[in-house]
Amino acid sequence: MTRTLTVLLGTTIFVSTALAAQAQELNLYSSRHYETDERLYSDFTDLTGITINRIEGNADELIARMEAEGANSPADVFLTVDTSRLQRAADLGLLQAVESEALAERIPENLRDDDNLWFGFSQRARIIFYDSADVAEPPQTYMDLADPAYEGMVCHRSSGNVYSQTLLSAIIENHGEEAAREWAAGMVNNFARDPQGGDTDQLRGLVSGECDISISNTYYFARAIRRDVDGLNEADRANIDWVFPDQGGNGAHVNLSGGGVAANAPNAEAAVAFLEYLASDQAQQYFSAGNDEYPVVEGVPVAESVMALGEWEADDVDLAVVANNVPLAQQIFNDVGWE
What we know:
- This protein has 339 residues and is of the alpha+beta class.
- Helices cover 40% and strands 18% of the residues.
- The strands form 2 sheets. Strands 3, 4, 5, 6, 7, 8, 9, 10, 11 and 12 form a 10-stranded mixed beta sheet that branches.
- Helix 6 packs across helix 7, helix 6 (162-175) crosses helix 14 (326-336) and helix 7 (177-190) crosses helix 14 (326-336).
């Protein structure tokens, strides 16, 4: 595609007169559903004069819509909260390669597609939470979660959830298919209840006593530190402690929110400008301050609510490779009876 005429310098985007003249709007297909993202969009418009038109839905619905629209699709940018859907969109030919020095310099290689079809812009660590009143020796790795010592203690989401799928996909990549299959079977044996609910529900399970150990993305807990979340107030969280798994080993698994430029984008240069904006210091800092996520750009400060969780090392596995393991992960889930 034609190289965009934007330049990213720190927190400011300078858009060329030519771009401003030909692209006054941007059509964003997004499965991010956070009210705090409104600030991201309005700031981009303030900086560039480009209006963002949003079409929102779950990622699978948006992918199906882009497929059905074909070459006539108005989509400029596809934005979602997991790499598996980004990779699926790429595999279906719904995204185009982006040539951007700013994105290449700021987004780590393992957090973007090898062919620059998609880029990660914010991340959440998927970590172990536990009831410190009941668990004296919490699991220190993901593999430990399948230890028979924790039988009947663990809560987790369903196998159809993308966070479940990408975690098992990373385990496949790091430990091999056989070990991943054994882990999934051990997890099923250790469930305290049938898989259900979202990440916040896994944390509430610790409060209610249904679970002693659960897994959640960091930003759900950090959000409860920053503002009121029903069932997770300060008193509710008093006995909840956490472990960043695999420190000293592979590192903690990361879920990535990211996006790419649509293959038939009518406003392609504006689309690249938007992606570059999401990699700017201003937007990166707001991902953390507004939604309790971790920036992907090194050196950008994190919010106090996020910082409260402590320092940790991330798994540097290539998330594009992890995304390709999702079909096998789902098959393993089906085989071991993970609902």
